[in-house]
Sequence to fold (1111 residues):
Amino acid sequence: MTALLHELSIAEAAARLRRGELSAVELTRAALARIAATEPSFHSFITVTEEAALAAARDADTHLRTGTAPSGLTGIPVAVKDVIATAGVRTTAGSRILDGFVPPYDATVTARLKAAGAVIVGKANCDEFAMGSSNENSAYGPARNPWDLGRVPGGSSGGSATAVAAGQALASLGTDTGGSIRLPASYCGVVGLKPTYGRVSRYGVIAYASSLDQVGPVARDVSDCALVLSVIAGYDARDSTSVDRPVPDCAAGLTAGARGLRVAIPREYFVEGMQPEVEHAVRAAVDTLSGLGAAAREVSLPHTEYAVGAYYIIATAEASSNLARYDGIRYGLRTTVDGGLLDMYRHTRAAGFGAEVKRRIMLGTYALSSGYYDAYYLKAQKVRTLIRRDFERVFADTDVIVTPVAPTTAFRLGEKVADPLQMYLSDIFTISVNLAGLPAISLPCGFDASGMPIGLQIVGPPFGEEVVLRAARAYEEATDWQRRRPPEPALCPPQPTGSRA
Amino acid sequence: MTHEPAAPRDRAQFPTSGAGFDRYEAVIGLEVHAEMLTASKIFCGCSATFGAPPNHNTCPVCLGMPGVLPVLNRRVVEFAVRAGLATQCRIAPRSRWARKNYFYPDLPKGYQISQYELPICEGGYVDIEVDGATKRVRLTRIHMEEDTGKNIHDAHGDASLVDFNRSGVPLLEIVSEPDMATPAEAGAYLRTLRTLVQYLGICDGNMEEGSFRCDANVSVRSRGATSLGVKAEVKNMNSFRAVEKAIAYEIARHVRTLEEGGTILQETRLWDADREETRSMRSKEYAHDYRYFPEPDLPPLLVSEEFVEAVRRTLPELPDARRARFVRDLGLPPYDAEVLTSRRDLADYFEEVVRAHANAKAASNWVMGEVLRLVKERKLDAALTITDWPVAAARLGELIALIDEGAISGKIAKTVFEEVVATSAAPRAIVAAKGLTQVSDEGPILAAIEQVLSANADKVVEYRGGKDKLFGFFVGQVMKATGGKANPPLVNRLLAEKLKN
Amino acid sequence: MDWRPRPALATLHAVKISREEIRHVALLARLALDPAQEEAMATTLDAILTYMEKLAELDTSGVEPTAHIVALDAPRREDRVLNTPDTDALLANAPARDGDFFRVPKIIE
Fold:
């Protein structure tokens, strides 16, 4: 039984836990063993929290035995992206500048997972400060795509996606600023949801771009995603941008089906040069939805081509400010230098930040600097308004918008690192959604000739998680992409002092 | 401090007259930062109280730890609106928060959350009195922001130590138009503003402790010119006197420089209280570009008319109005009214005395005289609100009533006063117990006069011979003979009659 | 919209962002860059900024900038002291500590 545990969905595992067929400790041990055996291949984790996980699993078992399990996540092993604070556990944001930083506080989403009885098995690998589309910017080495270890898993929440795809955890939390949940979910053949901006608290989530960042779930299937969302979402008084709206019971509407759904396909998302298999798979998915009773039509989101430019000004501007606190004074790395304070600042930050982070800090600082603010930052904010209006116009008579997640499937490690701009363009289909603050999901809709997963993006109106999940579930039920598993990697033999009784 | 060898001229005492001065006029604007008397900080639940051990009033939020977010303290908004209403400002129904970005060890996030483009209050004024004339100083704006921590130099001199207790304490920044023309006007403005914030209960106005800070912008121009000269910003003045001296010094420096054909640099200068001069801040060679942009973690602040009216209802009678009422309704001389209204608690105390016994002038004399003397002696005025008066208002009222009834003389009253201070006993009881009732019967007084005149027959002859001064001697002897209790006007009249014959 | 791989950086027009500006921005951002890094940064930023200039094509006159994507009023909390001193835990991550202070290289005023 242990060998198959890593293939369970949350719903299946939770059912077995409830029936007493399986204990949380057994399930957690299986996850930890899977992690130990496969980490050399995937490198999904920066930190594995074995002791804490087993302690949480024991607590979960107590609850399960006495029938007081707080939620459907009780006893379920989950991974948490390493930009999310976990009290007492090293939190690095994938960066050397926070190496050794142990926060004395939990992020709100961490606290909610714990309160729900989830078992956090480790901190997932990610691009440094969530800046990247391939997880190659992690100071701790890249995560690798379980479908082909020579390819990137996507980013920035690469480890969050690989952990689920590889069966190291049954779900994970990622963050999405320009596509950082949806892109790795797409490249790794799992389901990833970015909630509406303001749905999920950002307290304790290391900020990249404050007006764009959102925490969201990555899981095996749509139902699992909906469950994790219901645990983490909701108003938080510690986050002034969190919205006081009741969290819908997404599970309830999940099976409503696609009949009558008005589906829009924006023409700007199907362009020359896309990988043909991607376009084919997405159009076939639209046909599937039509076959289920949805009404599909083509629309235009005319300002789409300006989204990447607007995003990389707004996001880097906010990031340049958010990352000013990493100065070697209160926590993290400090470089000892002979000079005074100025040298300490400059050399600490030079040593602690990677190349991509430095580039974005420079770009953002420039965009905000005297003389350039109007032309760059202010202009980008106006473009953001135009992009938002594009979506508002379409959603006036549309339920969901369907698009590809990326122009291609996962590319090879090292393929795009030389040209940052090239890397940025991987985000073209996901970025507008962050600028408009909308909810969107990525789920598998096919595989290319190399066996790499293709992702389908379903976008909803503000606070429209229910309809997004409903459409996604309808599509998922009519297909079986999510049943495919990546090839088994070469497993490392278990360590003699591993997680045994 | 970097030592700048002072040019010999710089050390001259700052004249305010002499060659050239009559050709120029000074233009002065003041920026005041007032620490607000809230219980907690502006964006977190730490205590805002002064005096805690280093870094005891801190938390992840005011330390700028990764992932933390600000949440606004509603009392800060209330205080800002109070200040705006009291100075006739326009209260903005919608105002915005902004980030002011720069690096300094006492600024934990690497940015200060402040207000830039849309402050909460704009365009009010403060009326000041200088040399009997009233002048209106207009306000540009009032806005809210967070204070920084404090740097101190360590004992060895090779490092600085940072304490973040003050980081996040709420500040009101009050910016005046450059409407002041002399150091005296600046001093009057500051004193008026300080009294106002104390009246409003929003700040304790302590310049020496740093809860009320002032920077000055000073320039000069040819008398009658309309365009402004180059201004220098002056900082580090820790008392009203220092502000007046520093401004006088700067005006003299500008005039001297211009008279000698030099140019004024637009720069920041620090007041050196020991050497009584201003010196250029060398460290400002790193040009500050604050790169202001809207704070993404805080939505705009909406202030409703209902809220503003609710705050308006809580406004106390303001100093100006109270002073006018004391003059108009209580018949006090303007000087008395000014002293009594210089503190709200003093004015309240005074009015309580008047309510106990309606003799405003007498009450004024006693309060400004004996009571204030003791208050200063006992340093009771260090508190924002005096609660422990040396004499209870009701007691003082009773004492004055006794004088007005003729029951005791003014001189005896002083003795009774001391007794009330020492024992808190009621004046009537003290007078009765010590038999201090004034003697107003002619009989005993005449008897005493007879006794004195017969014992000093030679002096009587001298007096009748023209030595008028001896009258005082006789009065003194009569008072002595009556144990000080004789009614002085009566003594004078009867003595004069007796000596005539 | 053409997202295809762009021509190699070397064939782009002359670099617009000067070394001086790079140095100035690096100072504002407190980042130490050696000359080679300055060079590389100038080239990369220039390419990115050139791409972003397409935003100038758009007529945005009369368009309100979006600073906050969700229309909210800033929530306000009661003025209450909620936190208790926890100095050791909060100083535990300090790279340099002196008693209850954070220690930093001397600040020259």
